[in-house]
Amino acid sequence: ELNSAGVKDENVTVIFGCGTHRAVKPDEAEELIGKEAIKRLKFVSHCCTDPELVYVGTTKTHGNKVYINRIFAEADVRVLLGDVNYHYYAGYGGGRKSVLPAVSGEVTIKQNHALMVSSNAKAGNLQDNPVHIDMTEAARLAKVDFILNIVENKEGKIVRAFAGDLEAAFLEAVKLVDEMYRVYVDRRAEIVVVSSGGHPADINLYQACKGLDNALDVAKRGGVIILVAECLEGHGNQVFYDWMSRLGDQKTVEKEIKRNFLIGGHKAYYLLKALQNHPLILVSTLPDFYATSIFKFKTARAINDALNEAFKLTGSASRVWAIPVGNYTLAIFKSPEEKT
């Protein structure tokens, strides 16, 4: 479509929005944009520590100095591509996240992500969410012209695409995500069994914890949450491991997030937050040394064993909720009064 509008291939640059992550490998780039496009278009991976980053302004609400990728900043037209789904502390992925963190500087990203300790920074919430507000203001400063966002089903197939204004198109996609994946219950349960959705969502504990977080609202305080995740590749993130083993409690992790946010630290924060209110049982292949000593889970090798342990803790008459696709599903408690 760009070609038909008179835009030549040599005038298009694809920027992979890596945030603070490593650069995209050539085979990954080909998978992301296709064999034909990879031959025709220039592509670069954003580096958040690039000395050539451009300052575009300071966010009004939280005073975050916004530095972004120079190629992106100097482009005549800036288009964002992405997918919208639930996100730990931004509320939802997609939209403005393709600027911050995707093509932003490390200092900008760290200041934004330090806002995640707010009680409003949670999956499925945009209202008064400081992370979302800061990201949106940063994206406005970057002068985004157009976005194309998709929503996928749990098989990874595109359900619908949304195009147009930075905020309007994103919010339409958010509505569909909620229609597809937000589930309400009118009672909290003593036991919640949640699967992270199978491979690749449970390839390691770092990935699997998304399912755990999405289940918290429907478990009673003190109720047991059973996380079912194979974790063939272990813990999955060194910062996650280090912070759990070295810092060990939520308040200390929260201070470290505010002082020096590192990707992986947020997983430690949310896991420790869950442990404050719930016994957690992990059904996985993860060695007990890691699961129990470092990540503070009780362990079981089968779901039935985990359920037996949970019933011992909560009583034989306990209510059980089961969430089979926890990486996509956001389970929310809503009282009958709220529903009316």
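Second entry:
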Amino acid sequence: MPAKNPRINVVLEEPLYREVQFLAKKDGVPLSTKVRDLLREVLETQEDIFLSRIADKRAADWKEPLGLSHEKTWS
């Protein structure tokens, strides 16, 4: 029977493997679940960094007369 979710094989250095294994045991979850959760956290962090850079650029380019204030937008 095929797997429900896609699978991926990853090769880890021994110290990294031991660290992930420790975290999985500490949380009482399977190793694959811990790796999935850690990967999800990293992807969310990367997305936050990317969107923050866009917001910073927009804030730097902001020209008051050309844009609407928060109050004007939502009133």
